[in-house]
Structure formats: structure tokens, C-alpha cells
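Below is our example:

___
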Amino acid sequence: MTSERTADARSRNGRTGGHGSGAAPLPLRAGSDPVPADPVLEVRDLDITFGRGPGAVRAVRGMGYAVRPGEVLGIVGESGSGKSVTSLAVMGLLPPHAHVTGSVRLRGQEILGAPERTLTAFRGRTVSMVFQDPLSALTPVYRVGDQIAEAVRVHQRIGAAQAARRAVELLDLVGIPNAAQRARAFPHEFSGGMRQRAVIAMAIANDPDVILCDEPTTALDVTIQAQVLEVLKTAQRETGAAIVIITHDLGVVAGFADRVLVMYAGRPVEVGSVDEVYYRTRMPYTMGLLGSIPRLDRGREQPLVPIEGSPPSPAALPPGCPFEPRCPIAVPACAESEPEPVRVGSPGHLAACVRSGEIEAEGWSPAQIYGMRAVASTADTAVRGERPRPRGERDLVLAVDGLVKHYPLTKGTLLRRRVGTVRAVDGVSFDIREGETLGLVGESGCGKTTTLMEILELAAPQGGGITVLGHDTARMSARDRMAVRRDMQVVFQDPLASLDPRMTVHDILAEPLRAHGGREVGPRVRELLGMVGLEAGHAARYPQDFSGGQRQRIGIARALALEPRLVVLDEPVSALDVSIQAGVLNLLEELRTRLGLSYLLVAHDLAVVRHIADRVAVMYLGRIAEIGQADRVYDAPMHPYTRALLSAVPLPDPVMERSRRRILLEGDLPSPADPPSGCRFRTRCPLFRSLDEAVRRRCVEEEPQVRRLGDDHGVSCHFAERLGAE
């Protein structure tokens, strides 16, 4: 695809930069072109209010930024900070009851408040948008190719046949295999990653000047996320467009963006180049965000830095700085008036904090500001990292041996017949010892949740065996099952869905105690609330009265009510902001240390698993690909799939992220109803493609089994030693 604006596209080292906060665009960072291009999109003093009168909610207050051709601006912040509302205002997609003031200029033309006909002419041609949920963004009853062709014909005078060819070209450009055939498919026939790529194809169909991306990778696996980000880079190179990416993932911003804008309570609180904001942070809120992220390149030796409390409601902002109630270095002046962003350090770096000068002069780190200190005592180190006894000398709390779970694939309505088998779990084996955490990771559809549910069911498995706390689930009586359920508890992914909204917190925590005839309820409920960092007075409230992080703490307290030995954690922090996630992870680690718990952690976030797990098992298409000590698997992976997974996880470190070697997997996860013969990973394996034709035959014909390559390290790859020798 070619465009007159392609000449404006620049490599990362040569992109222009520009940014403002309700002010004139800022000067370029060092090393960029001496004469900056005019902004293609400029937002000034944007205010967005929902409702009228005393109950009005100011969702965005004084928002401003500017982006130039070829520039990538990342907008980050916690949920409710106003990121997505701002992008919808730029596109003119807010509901009628939203009151919007300020200025939005596109190529110098004011579009805020413009007639719908004018906005329609701009949308898709000059400015386009990639939405968070691609399935909602695509019409389910029209073929994907027809929808892309329609986007082309709306703005270009071409025939249907030419538009259809253009749709196929765009699908091929964004990496859709067999583009001509896939263009005739419906959205539900695409995987999540393919749908997002189709939406990107639609967004770049008319060579826009600006592409707004609202959380484009949030619901995707890290391997698919890496593919989508690569597609966005390709789209930018082809169109020369500026990109505004809204995300909560600071690792994505570190490697993808030129500049970053941090939002809090509806307004910018720190703005600057990615390097300036990440390495010379001057706003305590930004420091808290960066310090709360589990990093793939660090183990559990460095505690996370949580931001206490929750963001304020836009309808009831505190006086002065909105971050003052949560800020660990707040002074009386912070509560008097809200600080304006001022220059700190290099040109273009702004921060809204009255103590930014002190932060710069003292060189404070997030750990210093938030009062966290690295674990130094020998006793703590022994508990957090090294176990007092070798693993083999500790009691076995869970053993899974050759677990199999297949589902029949049927067809027909009245006369249903079996046409295949879905091999969800196909021979999985692992074990967990006392006081140990095992992380179960892999892409969506690999069988993690099915494995978890088979364990929680405490019934005879379809194949293989499960032993929980010394009890074989195939031979359990009803009494045994009741006893095991007392000692094995679960924390679910969505705390609001797992807590009964009709029950108070007291009743929620008291329910398992009463069901199992436990100790006196009242004192135990107060003890549990204190254990997870909540107040005794919270017992009278309902789940909807709490923030997401507080609800997850309630779920953890309920799981601990009966003093279990094994706790199953099903994506316990995936629905939380990073600032709240850090507090929950620190709590889980503290409780494991204090109570001697064992965890089975199911997660898709490999950085979270690195922070909390002793051992990790990587699953692919119903089988274990690699298993072993977490540090060994993360630092020296021996399976090509593990290497690809780890390389796809972004790091919140701009220099490291730009210099990393990324292994992009081709295609999507094969269907478990029709897995490839031999090695299930061979269709996507970069090592397989490098082998001689004669050697490949073994991968095609012989399915590899997990084999030991060292103490407590197993790999299911015929040629793992070749990777180890690199």
C-alpha cells in the first residue's frame, strides 16, 4: 500500500515529537528534526461533563495534547481516569448528554461541535479508531471483507470489485493468512487476534492521518499482542499516520511510543518523552504506576510498590491535588490548590506536583517514596526465596498424573451425532509441595482452566489421576470430599461475580465457617478482615460498596476462612489496575509466608507468575511444554514456545524493550479438535522451520514427551538441546 503521506513516516530514532497540556505544542526532543511539522491532531483545554447541576460528573478536565506525523503518543492511567472518554470526544462519538468544551483541531480544522456530516467525512479517512473489543466493532451478519470494502467505498469513488480487491490487500498487509479466502468469513469465524487485525485493516483502509487505538491489545494473549503491535507499526510505516494509543500496559508504551501522557482524575499529571517519564519521573503517581508493575526480568526479591487507596470519584473530587489523599509525600500545600503541569528537567517534560523539584534534587525512587524496602533479613529471604527444607522433603499437597479431559464434538439438532473430539487436556502431569507456588501459564485455549476445573471438581477424571492432600479423587467418599474442600479453597478471577451481592461481607466470610462448623464467627470475621488489610467496620457493607482490589481481598479472606493448605488462584489480578494488583500480589506473598500456604496459580500474565511462583508449568494445546523452577525457566528456557512467550512480554523499560529480540509466532493456536500430528507446536515453531527436511520428520510423526534435562526441569521438545547450546 502506498500513500503521499508515506514520506512522513519515520523510524523511531527520527520521529518528531510534540506534546502539550492545554498549551502550545512542546519543542522536539534531542536528536529529532530541527523544524517540527505542524500537528495533525491538537487537543486543547478539553472538558467533558456528564449530566447537569449538582450531580454533574466532570470526566475530563483541561485535557490537552498534540501529535505530529509519524509520532506515537501513549496515554496511560488507571481505570476511570478519562483516557477512553477523551478519544471518543475526538471522534465525536460521545452520547448527546455529554457536554464537551475546548478545542479539537484536525489538520488545523476545528472538529469539536462540527455537524455530523462533517464528522462522517473525517472519520475513517483523516482520523480512524481501533476499538478495544473487535467483536463489538464488527457487524456480525456481514462478511469481514465486505465491511472493509464498505469502509473504502464510503470515502473513495471506486467500484465494488476494486473495493473487494483492496480489502484483500489490506487483510494480507495486516498478516491474515489466506486473505482472499478469509475475506469471505464472518467475524465469529476469526480468532480474537485476527479480528483485531481486521479492525486495524479497516482503520488504515483510507490512509488516515491519525489512528486512535483504545486498548487494542488488552484482551489478547502476549503472543497475539506482539503480532498486533507489529501490525500497527506496519500500518504506521505504510500510512505515515500519527498514533495515539490508550493502554494500561506501561510495557507496551515503553517499546511502542515516542511520548507518554499520564492521566489521573480526568487531567494530565505528567507528560514527556518516554525516556524522560520512565527514567526521570517527577510525579509520585507515575512513580507508583511504574513501581507497581511485576517485571519479567526480576524475580520476587524486589517487592512491588502498591498505591494505597482508590482513584477519587469524578463527581466528588477532593480539594487541591486529586492525588493528595493517596500520595505518600503530600504536604499541606497539596490540599490547598490543584497544581498545574510545569516544566521539570528537559524541555517537553511536564509534571503537576508541588514537590517535583524535591523529587529531582533528592533522586527519590518509587521504593523510597512509597516506603517499601527490599527484603534483607536472612529469615525473610529464606521464606521468600529458599525453602528451609529441600523440595523432596516437604509434604505433597497436589499431584496430577497424566490428566485427560476430552469433550465430544457433535453436529445436528434433532439427531445429534459425534463428529470429532476436543482434546482440551491431553496428558498433563505436575505436583505441588507444601509452601510452594506453581504457576500454570499459556495462551487462551491451552487447557489451563480445564485443568483447574478438573482439580476443583474432586471427582474421578476421564483419564489419569489427581491426588489432593493425600486423597485420590477417584476413590473419595462424600465425607472425604467434604474434608478436602475445607483444606482446598479457590479465589476466582472476577471478585464481583464470585461474591453474592445480597450478602454483607460479614455473611460472606461467615458462610464457610458455618458450613463446616468452625469457630466463633464474629471474632474470626474481624481477624480475616484484618489479615487482608480491611477494617472491621467493612463487615457491614455489601460487595458493590468496595473497589475492585478490595473485593478481591474479600475473596481472599473467604478462601482463608477455614485455614486451608492449598489455595487455587484463577487469574486473581487480571481484572485489576496495576496499582491495585501490586497490593494484592504482595498480600498473597505475605499470607503464604505467614500461613505456610501452597498456591496453584493460573494466569496469562507471565510477569505476575515470575513474581509470585516457585515453579512454572507452560501449557500448549492441552499438554505441558516446559516445567521447572521459575528462575530456570524464565532465565534459560529450553522450549521454543516458552522462548516465544517470554520474548512477547513487554518490559516497562524503554531501552531494554527497544533492544530485545522478539520472536513472533506465525498464525494462531490450532484447534484442540484437530491438533497437528507429532509435535503440536511444529506448525508455529521457529526451530522446526530451521531444521533439515529429514530431521523434521521426527517432529511430524513422533509426539514429544516431557523429559528431564536437569533437576526439576522438564521439556517436551525433541531438539531442546539445540536451543540450550545457543
